[in-house]
Design brief:
Largest sheet of chain A: 6 strands, mixed
Radius of gyration of chain A: 14 Å
Oligomer: heterodimer
Distance between the termini of chain B: 37 Å
Largest interface: A-B, 23 and 27 residues
Number of strands of chain B: 11
Number of helices of chain A: 0
Strand content of chain A: over 45%
Helix content of chain A: under 10%
Radius of gyration of chain B: 13 Å
Shape of chain B: globular
Strand content of chain B: over 45%
Shape of chain A: globular
Structural class of chain A: mainly beta
Order of helices and strands of chain A: EEEEEEEEEEEE
Number of helices of chain B: 0
Helix content of chain B: under 10%
Chain lengths: ~110, ~110
Amino acid sequence: GDSVTQTEGLVTLTEGLPVMLNCTYQSTYSPFLFWYVQHLNEAPKLLLKSFTDNKRPEHQGFHATLHKSSSSFHLQKSSAQLSDSALYYCALSDNYGNEKITFGAGTKLTIKP
Amino acid sequence: EAAVTQSPRSKVAVTGGKVTLSCHQTNNHDYMYWYRQDTGHGLRLIHYSYVADSTEKGDIPDGYKASRPSQENFSLILELASLSQTAVYFCASSGTGNYAEQFFGPGTRLTVL
């Protein structure tokens, strides 16, 4: 079945440093990949999603590139802000005609001054 | 703006009791989902539905039932609540298509004592 792996459970960075959150996946079919973000005491919401072509999705300074050869969809940002502190989920949809999304375990990102 | 509401927002239940969590969406979405969130496990799909009067099992359906009486409403039922079902529960809705964004409700914090 489908699976998503986020190797870091907790990431702590200093403001201004670059962010990279890892995401790898396994899927029988050619999946769509997503990043969802959940701020403290809020609901998860979509941050960005992969395109079918080679465009790189970007939102709020975050970007991610789908690498099918390595089955990865890492989330990156050049300079972290305090407001980026949140729980980040990588997720996939298996492109097999159903709407289920499989979520990773999540990475809690904490940005310190 | 998409809108998904959940009730109650928090609940304390006794072991062996019946619990019903309700979800209502005004997005005119066909798909609705129930997830539970636990630290270290991320978001796990319990049940979902793509049409009224029909529900599908997700990845962890044991101990849970679901009901979709209308397009707008989706309930999660714990017939015999257990300690292990203490968690935060999120409802979500989405349109059709694998690219469809899921819109989450605010969550229900359930504590089983």
